[in-house]
Amino acid sequence: MYHGGIYAEEIAGKAYDTRLLTRFARYVAPYRTAITAVLVTVPLVAACRLAQPWIIKLAIDGHITTGRLAGLEGIALAFLAVLLSESLLAFLQIYLLQSVGQRVMADMRNELYRHVMHLPVSWFDRVPTGSAVTRLTSDVEVLGEMFASGIITIVGDVMLLVGIISVMLWMNLKLSLVTFSVLPLLLYVAWAFRRRMRQSFREVRARLGRLNAFLAESIGGISIIQAFNRERDEERRFSDLNASYRDANMPVIFWDASLYAIVEALSSIAVALIIWYGGGEIIRGALTFGVLVAFIQYIEKFFTPIRDLSAKYSVMQGAMAALERIFALLDTPADKPVHQAPVPAFAEIDRPPGETFGQTPPLIEFRNVSFAYREGDNALEEFSLVVRRGERIALVGESGGGKTTITRLLTRLYEIDRGSILIDGIDVRNMRGSDLRRRIGIVLQDPCLFAGSIEFNICLGDEEARLRVRTAAAAVGADRFIERLPQGYGEEVRERGNNLSVGEKQLISFARAVAFDPEVLVLDEATASVDSASEQMIQEGIRGLMQGRTSLVIAHRLSTIQDADRIVVVHRGRKSEEGTHQELMEAKGLYYRLHQLQFNGL
Ligand SMILES: Nc1ncnc2c1ncn2[C@@H]1O[C@H](COP(=O)(O)OP(=O)(O)OP(=O)(O)O)[C@@H](O)[C@H]1O
């Protein structure tokens, strides 16, 4: 009797919204045959339920009280047939409804996942991961609940209620009015209690959210918790949150149980009224015994759907809220559009006098690029950089200077606000995201590994890259450790690569970049310190990685970039210096100071 469940959050809105349901109908349309079959069963089930008390009335008035045995078996058989038909039809209805529900949910999850995969990275900055996961899981689940106990069953309940009221009125007007005298109270109780429960549900939902967030964080950070002996403390905090969640559930249980009890009591009162009034009528000869029994049965069939209607209404409200959120997510524009309006091409850009590149444009050019993650807080300001084919460029500077931002803009994970970024003289906004990213390989600071084999982690399922897995691993020197593993390239990587060392994870991510054979390589050097043997292994890997490629390296250890073609110092979103190691050391500027700091601790 715990209707509405944890999905009853944010229930305030409509229980029926034509716009949302029309759009939702598109997902149900492929299963229209099953839905039509369900729609046929709905009135039939209602008719079976309606017929049972009527058949009992016929048996009592026509045979039992008159002592006429002939024909009684026929009536008993008819009763049995109606009961069996009802069971069979109800089975069909529930089975079909729920299986369509599961199929629709699976389709929606697929569509949502496909969509989320193409959303711009900036969207994930705004929306917490947990919220995106909720859309794909519990929000979709609510729609399943709508199938199981919403929409169509409501239609069946309403049909049954209208049927019962009509039959009662037709059988005996006065007796019906006596029965219906408890109705206003029943309706009031059902709605008032349901409203209280909704308020309590909201609290339950909020506290469950807090509990889940805490769990995710503490399980994710278990090694830190254990390393700092925080287990006891964490247990206490969890226990408090758990108790608060338990307590929030108490009012819900109270109102639910009360509603159940009160509806039962009211239905008993209605039966008592019928026995009292109907009994008198029978004695006076104004009513038959069969009608009285039928009335008592109808009352039982009448109260249950009324009690459940309010719960079903909550399910519908929850479903409308879920649909609203799901469609809002689907309407978030995916991947950045390829700009149709002319973005200035290489030849059209105003250049300062004296600057020429001849006929061939450089491979990469940042031209006066400005960008802000948050309005008014520029992470990059008027940044310009030219990278020629085959060059090895190092980006250095203090933390938070904007180095990573430069690489994100180049791969169009974020859109620039002003200026332009050109590749081979073509503005990246005129290129398709997928084409652009095929040309640029990226190695992130934190090597991201997925559950699957080492081979899968190198090629990520791409067929072309799969052919290059072994040569790529060999190029970065990852083959040595992979071949020592019991399963070699088939060795399973556990969650986030927990069974591999930091250096090994790095090498796999290098091999991945090589396997995709990009023209340009962007490498965000890891800041994590590894022992000197691993360090040497990684440096060798990096050399293999950059072999014959144009590269842009974000360097945290200046020792690794002294032979770069050019070093660019990024400071507070601007380019503050540019030159070779030798030139910058001689200039005695920011680079020189960073160098002194790292090597001499000055
Ligand atoms: N997703 C984001 N949303 C909002 N602000 C961000 C985001 N990513 C970075 N920033 C901010 O932008 C600025 C530049 O960050 P960026 O990551 O480019 O620096 P960085 O030079 O790469 O630093 P590090 O060397 O520590 O990696 C910082 O002030 C940072 O706080």
From TrEMBL:
Main location: membrane
Localisation per UniProt entry: Cell membrane
Spans through the membrane: 33-55, 75-97, 146-169, 175-193, 252-276, 282-299
InterPro entries assigned to the protein according to its UniProt record, in alphabetical order: AAA+_ATPase, ABC1_TM_dom, ABC1_TM_sf, ABC_transporter-like_ATP-bd, ABC_transporter-like_CS, P-loop_NTPase, Type_1_exporter
Example GO molecular function: ATP binding
Key words, A-Z: ATP-binding, Cell membrane, Membrane, Nucleotide-binding, Transmembrane, Transmembrane helix, Transport
Membrane topology, as annotated: Multi-pass membrane protein
ABC transporter domain sequence ranges: 364-597
Stretches assigned to the ABC transmembrane type-1 domain: 44-318
Pfam families noted in UniProt: ABC_membrane, ABC_tran
Entry keyword Lipoprotein: no
SMART domains according to UniProt: AAA
Keyword Cytoplasm tagged: no
Gene Ontology CC annotations of this record: plasma membrane
PANTHER family (alphabetical): ABC TRANSPORTER RELATED, ATP-BINDING CASSETTE SUB-FAMILY B
The name this protein goes by in its record: ABC transporter ATP-binding protein
Species whose genome carries this gene: Oryzomonas rubra
